[in-house]
Amino acid sequence: MTDKIDKGSAATPPAGPGASGATPYEAIKAIPVRHYGRWISAVVVAVLLGWLVYAFSQGKIIWATVGDKLFDPSVLSGLGNTVIISVSSMALGLVLGILFAVMRLSKNPVTSFVSWLYIWFFRGTPVYVQLLVWFNLSLIFQYINLGPIYKNETVDVLTPFMVALLGLGLNEGAYMAEIVRSGIQSVDEGQSEASHALGMTGMQTMRRVVLPQAMRVIIPPTGNEFINMLKTSSLVSAVQYPELLRASSNIGTTAGAIMEMLFVASIWYLTLTSIFSVGQYYLERRYARGSLRTLPPTPFERLKANLNMFRRTEVAK
Amino acid sequence: MTAQPMVKAEGVHKSYGAAHILRGIDLEVAPREVFCLVGPSGSGKSTFLRCINHLERINAGRLSVDGQLVGYKQKGDKLYELKDSEVAAQRRDIGMVFQRFNLFPHMTAIENVMEAPVMVKGESKAVARERAIKLLDRVGLGDKGGNYPTQLSGGQQQRVAIARALAMEPKLMLFDEPTSALDPELVGDVLDVMRDLAESGMTMIVVTHEMGFAREVGDNLVFMDGGVVVESGHPREVLGNPQHDRTKAFLSKVL
Ligand SMILES: Nc1ncnc2c1ncn2[C@@H]1O[C@H](COP(=O)(O)OP(=O)(O)OP(=O)(O)O)[C@@H](O)[C@H]1O
Ligand SMILES: [Mg+2]
């Protein structure tokens, strides 16, 4: 439908006093190239997709259960926990990432080496192993003892939430450190020179000049990291944290609806990742200020513009 | 000797590792003077300019601005390095304009001009904004305050950069080939702003290949080659009647 109206408006040459300034021209009429390959591949893909949908509709799945359990209170609380653990782990990862990136780039060889060591260890071992290490830490340390400041039994401190937070957050910090570092290094040296020449200190230069520009490089991979985090958080079901996957499969095993509940979990994961992808899009736009002459319109703005265009063609008719 | 020189260099040396770039620079820049620095590529002009506001550290000699050693302080016969914050404080009074503008791309023109007064001097935004508007007016960009640097031509960007440096009310301005990255038709606007500034009595050190500007506005000109001052004097004399072969060879290429 959209197509028809578009073509219609393009074919009618703009008339009336408003268009008098433009020289009229005759649009080229040519027979477009036929893309047979595109047609064939479209048909093949459509058939395969149809077959897949059919197969699942014939499987021994009770789809009604998927619908019933989608808003089950314990599934929803698992969903909430997934968001909580993902957001807090990401926040911890971001703070650690900035800290270790700045350390890595510092002129002090000790801090730089410590940062390197951290990144080497936490990137070099599987996050699942790291989670299990935190989970079982009480096997080797009965107390967490920070001298006179703090002392407590390890099992009391390392609740499932803390295990999940430390496991995911420290791992994320190592990845974020590399992302932040590459962002900082992407900023032209002339920028910090200009800032120093104005009398700004190193800290002010980092905060006001370098980091805001580094954000443009940092945000896209950070968005990917976060979307990964939403999914990786399913691993913490192994350390007793009641997140989405654990809540769903608990119901699945007791109700004998394992596949159904895995679908329920998948639907929620897809929902979460979709929502945050949209958020990422707008965040990227915000930090693109100044790097593009004009920002491209958001999908919403484009929709509005299209609607206006329809209105105008209607008036023309 | 009348007034205290604004800049005084005595036997300034600078090396990058084994590369000996500045090999003993001696010169004096008087207050309110327009001091031009010319010389072939790689002769160390930019390096010397960057030493004046301590973007580079000198290896030997003495360099002072307005009677203060750059980057060091002297107690008795010992030199102490200045702290980061003290170096930053020294730089407040020295404006610098770069060949490639180096405006902050994430800020509008007016925000670029306001940044240092607000962050460094702790000025209120309202006061800083008022001054920024005046300065942008002065460089002929009163209507471009809301533009981001990418939305400005090269010549306009360089004029914003000059306004940004002036916002700190410096007593000395350093220009490192401010028009070399510009299309020929944009050079004039920037030179006009600099001429204005010179007339207002600003002390300026200008590295440039614009011999016309040097001849017309300059009070003093130094020809540098291989990290030393080869020849100096009034621009009209040095440019019109060079004494050294190296100066003659260089000028025959650029004039
Ligand atoms: N950070 C650095 N490390 C090593 N060598 C450097 C560095 N900066 C400059 N140099 C060298 O110092 C020499 C002088 O450089 P400088 O930029 O001062 O020259 P210039 O006179 O400004 O030349 P131009 O007219 O091309 O700008 C050059 O040979 C350059 O390669
Ligand atoms: Mg140079």
TrEMBL record, chain A:
Gene3D superfamilies noted in UniProt: MetI-like
Keywords assigned: Amino-acid transport, Cell membrane, Membrane, Transmembrane, Transmembrane helix, Transport
InterPro entries: AA_ABC_Transporter_Permease, AA_ABC_transptr_permease_3TM, MetI-like, MetI-like_sf
CDD domains cross-referenced by the UniProt entry: TM_PBP2
GO molecular function: transmembrane transporter activity
GO biological process, one term: amino acid transport
A GO cellular-component term linked to this record: ATP-binding cassette (ABC) transporter complex
Top-rank taxon, per record: Bacteria
A UniProt-annotated Pfam family: BPD_transp_1
TM segment ranges: 39-63, 83-105, 117-144, 262-283
Primary localization: membrane
Bilayer topology term: Multi-pass membrane protein
Classification via PROSITE patterns: ABC_TM1
The keyword Transmembrane is annotated on this UniProt entry: yes
Location of the protein in the cell: Cell membrane
Subunit note: The HisPMQJ complex is composed of two ATP-binding proteins (HisP), two transmembrane proteins (HisM and HisQ) and a solute-binding protein (HisJ). The HisPMQ-ArgT complex is composed of two ATP-binding proteins (HisP), two transmembrane proteins (HisM and HisQ) and a solute-binding protein (ArgT).
Family from the record: Belongs to the binding-protein-dependent transport system permease family.
PANTHER family given in the database record: ABC TRANSPORTER PERMEASE, ABC TRANSPORTER PERMEASE PROTEIN
Protein name: Histidine/lysine/arginine/ornithine transport system permease protein HisM
UniProt organism field: Streptomyces lavendulae subsp. lavendulae
Name of the encoding gene: yecS2
Automatic annotation (TrEMBL), chain B:
Entry keyword set: ATP-binding, Hydrolase, Nucleotide-binding, Transport
Pfam families linked to this entry: ABC_tran
Highest taxon, organism lineage: Bacteria
InterPro entries, per database record: AAA+_ATPase, ABC_ATPase_HisP-typ, ABC_transporter-like_ATP-bd, ABC_transporter-like_CS, MetN_ABC_transporter-like, P-loop_NTPase
ABC transporter domain boundaries: 7-251
EC main group: translocase
Record-listed E.C. numbers: 7.4.2.1
CDD domains membership: ABC_HisP_GlnQ
Catalytic activity: a polar amino acid(out) + ATP + H2O = a polar amino acid(in) + ADP + phosphate + H(+)
One function term, GO molecular function aspect: ATP binding
Family, as annotated: Belongs to the ABC transporter superfamily.
Protein name: ABC-type polar-amino-acid transporter
Lineage: Bacteria, Bacillati, Actinomycetota, Actinomycetes, Kitasatosporales
Gene: tcyC
